[in-house]
Amino acid sequence: MKHPRTIHTADGSSVTIRRRGIEFDLETRNALGETIATVVMSDVDFRALLAEMDEVAA
């Protein structure tokens, strides 16, 4: 992932994913654009999260 990706939710919130060196930042914002939380994940944890999301969505 070379560029940040933002996912917008039905309630107007968003999650932005950014690569930060060997880690990933996941920033959640509410509908007003206020940052609610930022989570830093290792590459391994991020890939595990993606796999879990695929399982849930299937």
Binned, the helix content reads 25-40%
Instruction: Using the CA coordinates, give the radius of gyration.
Output: 12 Å
- The fraction of residues in strands falls at 35-45%
Q: Note the gap between the termini.
A: 23 Å
Q: What is the makeup of the main sheet?
A: 4 strands, antiparallel
CATH class: Mainly Beta
**Strand order, largest beta sheet:** 1-2-3-4
Overall shape: it is: globular
Please give the count of helices. 1
Report the strand count: 4
Spans where pLDDT lies below 50 across 5 or more residues: none
What is the CATH third-level topology name? Transcriptional Co-activator pc4, Chain A
Mean pLDDT reading: 94
- Tell me the structural class: alpha+beta
Order of helices and strands: EEEEH
- Summed up, the domain count is 1
Q: What CATH architecture would you give?
A: Roll
Structure notes:
It is a single chain. The chain is α+β, with helices and mostly antiparallel strands and 58 residues long. It has one domain: Transcriptional Co-activator pc4, Chain A (Roll). The protein is 26% helix and 45% strand. It has a 4-stranded antiparallel sheet with strand order 1-2-3-4. A hairpin with a 2-residue loop joins strand 2 and strand 3. The longest helix is centred in the C-terminal third of the chain and has 15 residues. The relative contact order is 0.16.
